[in-house]
Design a protein that fits this description.
single chain; mainly alpha; Hypothetical protein af1432; 62% helix; globular
Length: 342
């Protein structure tokens, strides 16, 4: 018995019967020989961490654009915080930690520069619109590895696709692990964005909804602690009643939802960052228009996508992969005059 098989045996003994067992994976599009040390989900985690798209997350905005402080979250630090929250919840429930980790690390690979402002700009350039979760799937299935993709397992791809949104009507992941990541994403970003907003002077603790704070706690760490423990306890209660889903209790879930709504109205779409959002959209729109008019300037891989899938698709794929810094540099290279000495 090799090391991977020992890990798979440990999964059978230690995990909940509702966990996604590595041995029972729905597999990959292209079949591969199994690794002798790592389970299939461990392999997926490693492929994501070593991808170019993952490295670019360090220069993609979470909420605050081009800040001078090193202490604000980026898309990369957000991803790591989601992973840690999700792993804690999955261990508490008895789910597959390696699957949760792989989904967490890959869930935002398709996010655009300049946070959700970038997503808004790209919305109008594709017939079916642009969603970062769908773009994340496209990254791992097609764009990474020189156009070959990462050939991840179906469970990881499903979890990445299903992580977005918070409505009860949204399609849920087929695995409980994927559902854990969906909740962990919200738990992480609502709380760390409050922390960053207070640091930036855009928000004060006293302005947070008092009824929500009464339920969740009056500090960042207390709120995360409340949400994580509630998710573990509520989900175990569900599973014991044969209700196979991840959830928060009604009171805690409503409190998180209200806090999330508050952040959207007060920070994400609020007046304080309006001018910065306009600048970001201006840059993105102009870079997009340039490449739509000059597709011959695209890198070779994206030229091939233009030929096979159309101009908008190829240009959007290229723009969506840009970090904030790279996008600003492209704008400067295209539109800002250079000094010429005669």
């Amino acid at each position: 018995m090799n090391i991977r098989e020992k890990i798979e045996e440990l999964e059978k003994r230690n995990l909940s019967k509702y966990a996604a067992f590595s041995q029972k994976t729905r597999g990959r599009v292209s079949a591969e020989e199994q690794d002798e040390i790592r389970t299939c989900y461990m392999v997926d985690r490693d492929r994501i961490i070593h991808s170019k798209s993952f490295r670019r997350l360090k220069h993609k905005t979470q909420v605050f654009i081009k800040t001078s402080s090193d202490h604000y979250r980026t898309r990369l630090t957000h991803t790591l915080e989601v992973s840690q929250v999700a792993r804690t919840i999955s261990i508490g429930i008895g789910l597959n930690e390696y699957l949760v980790e792989a989904i967490s690390l890959g869930h935002d690979l398709g996010h655009v520069a300049f946070a959700h402002m970038g997503e808004e700009v790209l919305q109008g350039f594709l017939p079916d619109g642009f969603k970062h979760n769908e773009q994340s799937v496209r990254v791992v299935k097609k764009l990474e590895n020189g156009g070959k993709g990462l050939n991840l397992t179906d469970e990881v791809i499903d979890g990445i696709l299903s992580h977005s949104g918070f409505s009860q009507d949204m399609p849920k992941s087929k695995t409980l692990e994927g559902q854990v990541v969906m909740y962990s994403d919200k738990i992480a970003y609502v709380n760390h964005d409050i922390d960053d907003s207070i640091r930036a002077g855009l928000l004060h603790e006293d302005e947070l909804p008092k009824e929500v704070i009464k339920v969740l706690g009056n500090t960042n760490s207390l709120r995360i602690d409340t949400l994580v423990k509630d998710c573990v306890k509520s989900t175990i209660k569900n599973l014991n009643s044969e209700n196979i889903r991840v959830s928060l209790s009604y009171e805690v879930g409503e409190a998180l939802n209200e806090l999330r709504k508050f952040m959207f109205s007060y920070v994400y779409l609020g007046e304080q960052l309006k001018e910065e959002r306009k600048k970001a959209k201006f840059i993105l729109n102009h870079v997009l228009e340039y490449y739509l008019q000059n597709p011959h300037k695209l890198p070779e891989m994206y030229k091939e996508i233009v030929e096979k899938e159309g101009l908008s698709r190829g240009v959007v794929d290229y723009i969506a992969g840009m970090s904030d810094d790279y996008c600003i540099n492209e704008f400067n290279k295209i539109y800002v005059p250079k000094f010429v000495i005669y």
